[in-house]
Amino acid sequence: MLKISVIGTGYLGATHAACMAELGLDVVGIDTDEKKIAALSVGELPFYEPDLPELLQKHIKGGKLKFTTDFNEIADCDVHFICVGTPQMKDGLAADLSYVKSAFAAVAKVAKPGSLLVGKSTVPVGTAQALAATLPTNLELAWNPEFLREGFAVEDTLRPNRLVIGVTSDRAEELLKEVYAQNLKENTPWVRADLPTAELVKVAANSFLATKISFINAMAEVCEAAGGDVTVLAKAIGYDPRIGNRFLQAGIGFGGGCLPKDIRAFMARAEELGASPALEFLREIDSINLRARQRVIDLVRTELSGSNNMDLKSFKIAVLGAAFKPDSDDVRDSPALDIAAQIHAAGADVVVHDPKAIEPAKKRFPNLKFAETIEDCVRGADLILHLTEWKVYRELDPNSLKPLVKQTKILDGRNALDRDKWRQAGWQFHALGRS
Ligand code: UGA
Predict the structure, then answer these.
(1) For the whole model, what pTM was predicted?
(2) Mean pLDDT of all residues in the chain?
(3) From ligand 1's centre to the CA of 111, what distance in Å?
């Protein structure tokens, strides 16, 4: 039976560790953050991810999974997965590789001869080859990018839609086939690549997804100008199987810890490689995305004051949603929270609600007001902004909210609410990209 380690226990690492235990491997998760390791050791997650706490607890109790801060405890592992973060640099577009470099160095110090170090973090192309050159000759490196989505992290890891491995030998591929034996039994597509291609697959996939979202948001802008309806347009083009209907939800755009920083790091890397014209379009993808946030702010102004320039001082605005997407408490680069903060800065009395992300949102924006319940959030509001499409918001009864608000106005920033239901209940309903 293979024994593996997982270095870095954020979203990616904690999920990978628990899921690899579920697939039958013996797993040691390791992190330098003692508080995080203490919590994980008793099955507690420092973030919200459906189904993950149960999986952690199951395998900690069953003895297949443990967590430590001591690198000596991973010395006997056959395979080491490096899952640390690669955030955007504070002073530019590029990715900060310092965590990846120190993780590889720390593992290399203790790893037994013949073991395989596998990078899962999203890195600029060329990183793997550069790291391989720093390793002792008795250790080998592979790259195995991750495609999990927050909110579906467990499902995506246990049943991935493909496994991509960048390797430089058959032996490394065989070891990884042993790790993923259960997935292979279930016929998960297996793509063997060289190291640079494996790294590129990840950023290319995220760039494509970002492009799809910005494409539909560009169409939303045109629909607004021309009197069309982007939701109908998206449905109609999505029936073409070459286009497909997923990731065509127009609204306030993409955020989170991955898509925005990955397209920026990709552009930065292309420039270093002398290939910047190839990715020039990503600059436009980024600006369409950020423009969606500004369009909401402009709409709020026209909705409330009848003009684009007036300040919002006398208005109360209820913001439903703080997380960058539903089923997550992640507020990194959250379009919802960014809009809330900008409207607050324009003078409005803003109150934010989110089913899971209030605490992380408070940490990021301590000056914003937060409400524990939807009712408290909307009480006395001149306008409700629906910015993260949690199920509880989609299921709201517009009639029951009516007596609580000052004005029955709602703006759906995610095109996820039932417009007819709200209008029939007497609300002024607006949405991005729908005339
Ligand atoms: C994304 C990718 O989808 C994963 O495949 C990848 O593994 C991950 O990044 C990563 O690099 O680790 P994630 O950031 O969890 O996953 O979120 P997505 O589901 O991709 O959503 C990203 C953003 O796009 C959210 O803010 C969401 O609200 C927005 N979005 C998504 C839209 O505005 N419209 C859509 O149609 C779909």
Answers:
(1) 0.95
(2) 96
(3) 34
